[in-house]
Amino acid sequence: MANAGLAGDTIDTIFLTGGSSRVPAVRAAIVRAAPAARIATGSDFLSVALGLTYMAGLMA
Fold it and tell me: In angstroms, rounded to a whole number, what is the distance separating the alpha carbons of residues 25 and 22?
């Protein structure tokens, strides 16, 4: 976030996906970094596959 010039209080939603997002320490670190952000989740692995499919379509 610091590299992007973002402050934790300027982020309103964070979408967690992938296997690492299920690790409690990862979630806790995200909440500490952006305490006001709403945490959104989806299918942990399907959303990664859908994102990759979407990007592949854009690159084709």
Answer: 9
